[in-house]
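Dear support,

I submitted the protein below through the web form. The confirmation email said the job was done, but the results page showed an empty box. After a refresh the structure appeared. I'm attaching both so you can tell me whether what I see now is the final result or a partial one.
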Amino acid sequence: MNPSLDLNIGLLAPSNEYRSRHPTATRPMPPLRFLLTVTTLVSVLHYYIGARLLNSLAWPDWVLWAGWGFLILSTLLQPIAFLARRFRDQTLRDISSWISMTLMGVFSSLLVLTLLRDVLLLAVAGLDAAHVLQADFTAIEKNTALLAVVGALAISVIGFFNARRLATVVKIKVPMRNLPAVLHGFRIVQISDIHVGPTIKQGYLSRIVDRVNTLEADLIAITGDLVDGRVSELASHTQPLAALSARHGSFFVTGNHEYYSGALDWIAEIERLGVQVLLNEHVQLSHDGATLVLAGVTDYTAGGFYAHHQSDPHAAIAGAPQHAPKILLAHQPLSATAAQSAGFDLQLSGHTHGGQFWPWKYLVPLQQPYVAGLHRLKDLWVYVNRGTGYWGPPNRFGSPSEITCLTLVPAHE
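What the results page shows now:
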């Protein structure tokens, strides 16, 4: 249930393109087996929530019926989140995705708060047994159960509205060494992890594009995970990208979700919309007489899908002018070590969503070196965008979405 881990049956399975090119490759767990495993686990966890918050307390009958009814409904609908994209009917696919993904978010918060409640109760019981305090354990049990339910609903409702509203513009100044004077104030607008798909459509993307265009960027960077679905399903919903406007144009690098969704088709479609895709390569931008190198790499995991897409920051910078400022677009922060050794000055990434909603941001460091914001790795600056959309549950609590406006300024050395 952690958005940063990208757990989705439709996303775990390689695309048909990948399978045709890698007939002997090791494949993940078959979908049916995976679905049965997930359904069993989800059922057990729902029962755990019910047993801890409902069965052990003297609630009125209607509360018990309503509580267990919700948990049973949620259990039955959770697998739909993994199957909805296979439905042929678009309306059914979208409605079922909305319901199942929303319930997934509620379930996630309920589970976390139930676990935290049990830890608290265990601590109180231990202190009571040690005669450190005297507690009305029955009252504490009931009050904390109610608090867990109210807390999960509050996180879900607030997170829903945060997810659906237009991303906030975050303005960042990045101090660059040896920055030519004419590049002082050079403005890059970064968007990332929009995830156009079951619950994010053309209207959502149009509002992002309109806001980006008001920032009068020198260049626009899209750092991957633009889509969750095939070109045939989503081409009309990504059309607003054609309206992006910046002095030096718009640039895109692939994220892991592009590879789950047919990366080769999406690369062609994004270029058709007028956005330049950088695949382990760079361009030299001439800005009022100064040169700025902008490079892009394929997703950190891309080599597992196509051998010729192996992510390679060193290849991306090969042949670039030695003394020009060098910026890398790389979907995952994990690319930073190679980017630093390759000689880049700034890396722009996404992927983490900043954890998307509480408490998952505390687990992201298990997977990525940086969660969100501006960081330093020796001579390399790394900026991690929290995501301009969301993935999975329409929920953003404690980690708001963002459109990043980065301004290059000289470093005071």
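Response: this is the final, complete result; the empty box was a page-load delay. Residues 1-5, 7-30 have pLDDT under 50 and may be disordered.
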